[in-house]
Amino acid sequence: MKKSLLQFAKVISLVLLCFIFSCQQQVKEATAEEELKDIARRVIEEAWNQGKMDVIDEQYATDYVYHRTPFPDIVGLEAFKQYITDNRSSYPDLHITIEEMIVEGNVVVVRGTYSGTQTGASPTLGIPATGKQITFGWCAVSHRMNGKTVEDWNYVDWLGFMKQLGFTFAPPQLPEPPEQK
Predict the structure, then answer these.
(1) 159-169 tens-digit pLDDT
(2) What is the CATH number of domain 2-164?
(3) I want to staple 111 with a disulfide (CB 3.0 to 4.6 A). Which of 26, 47, 100, 137 is the partner?
């Protein structure tokens, strides 16, 4: 009887230890996820909304790449900071709002809205100032390595953006079908 109670106590102890370590691992993962979300919030608030570039120096790799389909990539930390500065100059009331964030491992996905009044030439499209207020959706997928963001894949509602600036779009003129006899 004593032997079976001892074995039962060992099994219970082992189960409890596994449970405790499992809970600790879940807490560590949740903490890491929250830290990555906090970094994303800081980058948007400090760099994009306030123009404070120190957070970029702190959180991004020097060989960082900003992919912005369908436009050419922005390569390097300094080029990326200049791109943010150019956006803030073209849209002096620029405000980016986070709608949703997802973290999986070292990948952070942020979806939000970009709004501002275009008082300068668009840094991406070169469109002259229109004075129009714009708001459009965007999504960024960020990859982090060794504690730094190494690349972002940025997806923007370019059609909605251009329509708000006054562009009109028409379907292409198709040739007339041949007459049938």
Answers:
(1) 999 899 888 88
(2) 3.10.450.50
(3) 100
